[in-house]
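Running co-folding for adenosine-5'-triphosphate.
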Amino acid sequence: MATTTTAAKKQASSGPVLDWSAGHGPVTGALSATTGAFAVATTGAATHMPPGWALAVGAAGALGHTVIGLRVRNAGRTLATHAASWLVGAGWTTWAMTHGPLTWAALGSLATVGVGIGAAARSAALFEEAREEEATAAEQRAIARELSAERRAIAAEWIDRIQRVCSISVRVVGVEQWATGAGYSIDAELPPGGATWNKIAAESARLSADARLPHGCTATASPGIHQGRVIIDVTTVNVLEQERTYPADYGPLSVHTGIPWGYRTNAEQILAYLREQCALIVGPTGSGKTNMVHSILAGFARADDILTWVIDLNAGSAGLPWVLPALNGEINAPDGKAVRPGIDWLAGTYDEAMTMLDTAVKVAKQRKMGYQDVLARANTDLLPISAKIPQIMLVIDEGAEILASPDRQVRKLGEKILEVIRIARAMGIRTVLTALGATGSVLSNLMIRREAKVRVALTGGETEGMDLSKMFPGSRGLRVEQAPHKGAGFMGTPESPAALFKAWRILPNQIREIIAATSDRHPVLDDISAKAAGPAYARRWDTERTAWMREQAATATTSTGTGTVGTGLRLSALSAKEAPGSPEDEMLRRFREQIDAEFGTAPEPPAPERSVKPPAAGGLDLSALRGEQDSPAQQAALALLLAAGPQGTGASAIARGLSAEHGTSRQTVVGWLRDWVKDGTAVRIGEGTKARYVHRQHAPEQPPED
Ligand SMILES: Nc1ncnc2c1ncn2[C@@H]1O[C@H](COP(=O)(O)OP(=O)(O)OP(=O)(O)O)[C@@H](O)[C@H]1O
């Protein structure tokens, strides 16, 4: 109450509040003007107000609106309308006060004034709207003019350049600047007289030099919409030089929509379509192959219709970062649920790899029989892959080396890999093989040539043994020197011709993020397949079958002495010696139970199919070495280690040395080396695939004994 009185007093003392900027439409404006004028006239007449006052208020109103109009940049015409409305209103009020407002003449003329003001205001508003639209259009025209001026300049520059370098007079039809900002494409018409696009393509290097493009940028010509047109893609920023991390969007993917494997020189993603294709990735040591495998596994983990099975006989380094954080319970899901590993199965030993490949063959055969009705209904011979019937992607690190191995045992694995490739395309099992090199023998295999058309060659500056023409038959102008950066190389798929590309850098923290983000997205093996896969699959996380993972972690702990491995994962919990029934055993058992209970990855088998051996004390399954202790092969291996001197050697080199005489597998040698490190015979230097073993006689200093 008090407030209202104060406000009323304030208003009374400061006079009527006039809001000059208050907005009115044509109707409300006219109404407000006429009712206001009528009110002033009747009150003025009743109170004998001098009529000149109304005129003064009108003049002030006209002035006030004009000032505000100018401030908001109204058109002159709008200003005039507003001012005129005030003045006409004021004129009528003055006249009505003199002659009496309550006469038919006064009321009639007021209505006419109202309609007049309304019509004027309406036309002013329309005019104002049109004026605004015109201003926006003019602004857009200016931007477009600026853009097309830039495009016209590019077109003129390249018409001259192509004339100068290739002696061809083209007519540029369009210039498209890439949204990524890494360059532009020119669409040009070739002159009549038989000029072809490849004439320009052949001069790519000279055109790039003439355009003064930065190193690593290219001008590449390709066919246009018909044979008389050419598209020239010009990169102006060398994105292959930059380190780009795996995109932070971990949204769902599908085998049908393609899985991004990296990016092209125009910074656009390149997708691998693997429903029917297998893939081959070649990269020498240090080229960024392991990193690329991780970014591939990231894509597979994001898909809701892919189960990833990994074989990595090289101490499981490709797969472990996708399993251990979940296995160790290091990642907490927000809802407290168990987190599933980022891959569905990891084989790090020969036996486990064989089991996995046998299972894949069984699944493929069972799917062929069990899904006859589904195939008939969908009228296809390609099993319709979905989250309910997932695709199995077998990723085999250094799989090409397995195929080309001289070792008889390893070759058996190779034969199984080829069998999977041969029989399982239609049934949704495909492979990704990596290779250190040795592609000649692998690519001469008809099965690989035919089925693995998604190909990657990571060069990382390595020129030795890189035969790009074998990897990408039919593509010209690919030179290893074009991709000198780690993680960069060439990629070609049936959909996208071989060209430069780079894999994203992916670090352990992103792997952990992806494991967490995708945990409840992974599909479950369909019942028909799970039945075929049996206990071999259902028990894949059993203690004795994952013992090697713990051993791997323990070895890494011993060698670094810090409780962490190169991947940055905390493995100290696994480094302790365990006996059956130890906390680690218990943890693994609980992990498996949780996985099965939460996700029902497979039906619980009645009894294990394989003979399950209890893990030896210390958590190591040494069965592979039983009967081989101090065998001639082992003695020969020790001799090779000694002969390697302070430089040391690795498991592969020793296995190669033994292959002719003993045919020992690399995996067996890995086991021996591991034992020798434990009992102090050898010292391990370096990490992961760079690890070397030096005989203690040559070791620079003995590791401290605890
Ligand atoms: N896509 C990439 N972008 C930037 N740097 C990369 C990329 N990939 C790899 N690197 C760099 O190269 C190094 C080697 O990568 P990676 O371990 O993947 O190679 P590799 O071929 O598997 O070698 P090795 O067999 O010796 O382990 C990495 O530590 C990283 O510094």
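Result summary
Residues 60 and 86 are 9 Å apart (CA to CA).
Residues 104-166 form the longest helix (63 residues).
Job closed.
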